């Protein structure tokens, strides 16, 4: 997902819409690609379905996407944690790499130990540049030794595909065997929350209790051949379902019907508040091309073998930070006063600037302000008191561990 705080984006959009119905709103601090004019926006196959169900459509990474539906963003967030949410994330880009050398090729571009994954399992990884900065984050799955499936973010699609293509051309020129397929013929649904598995189980014969967090299966769901990954972006148990686009609408309807109204269509606004509560990075806000995975708190995503061998873009910078420590670190905060927002500056009590907020808002679940951002190393430990300046006024804050809301990923007991 992309953008500078979708929750506050929604409020900004609605205020501006009320002020001028003739002007297309341009969200401030929105890290996705600049919004196209409405006539140029791409639409998912569920677009009309969203509108029929009261979806408030906004420009997002070149797509027309639902920000929210008839219920509030706060109610949608709480419903996901208590029951379930269905998100249309078809704007994201799924692709497959195939060939005997697809793994060594991809390992030149990402920090994960893909060769070490068991077939049918995946992990979060980061595409890096020559300076160790993050080009994008992605969930990558080793389907087989000669087949990798990954999903890249909508706002980074063009640059990611160009980056992969350029390096693939050079790799193949040296005799490497790898090709790719971009799955534009498929749509992507994210089913999240405690009812995700019970509801989806009603639509497939495969025993979902045997599929754990991070695992990937191909299976029939509601009569369609789907790619199923037990993952998500909310901190809840759930699935991402890649379905042939011609069957996406029927599958969405079936999921909602089987839940008897408990699983709700949910938009980008609640998706942002859910991921923030789960302490998950939003590319373009909490991580960018100038941020290394070590600084972003994603050291765990760098495989042990990769730390020893390197071999990926920016490895020299990243391995040095692993040894010596990074200059800055991503941390979480609780704070008083107005909810912190992206770019709010962070100071010590003595007035020294030590960083800035990258994401923030009011937590629907905790009923308090939460935020994440970067501070100088040494001032990143939980319990460290800080001052967060919002609209010229200093507010008390304290560094805290993340996630803010405990995750509920389905793992073997």
From TrEMBL:
Gene Ontology annotations of biological process type: glycine catabolic process
Compartment annotation: Mitochondrion
Binding locations of substrate: 240
Pfam families: GCV_T, GCV_T_C
Aminomethyltransferase C-terminal domain segment(s): 329-405
Primary subcellular site in the record, as a coarse category: mitochondrion
Molecular function (Gene Ontology), one example: aminomethyltransferase activity
Keyword line: Aminotransferase, Mitochondrion, Transferase, Transit peptide
Enzyme Commission numbers on file: 2.1.2.10
InterPro entries reported for this sequence: GcvT, GcvT/YgfZ/DmdA, GcvT/YgfZ_C, GcvT_C, GCVT_N, TrmE/GcvT-like
Subunit annotation: The glycine cleavage system is composed of four proteins: P, T, L and H.
NCBIfam families (alphabetical): gcvT, PRK00389.1
The protein, known as: Aminomethyltransferase
Organism expressing this protein natively: Ensete ventricosum (Abyssinian banana)
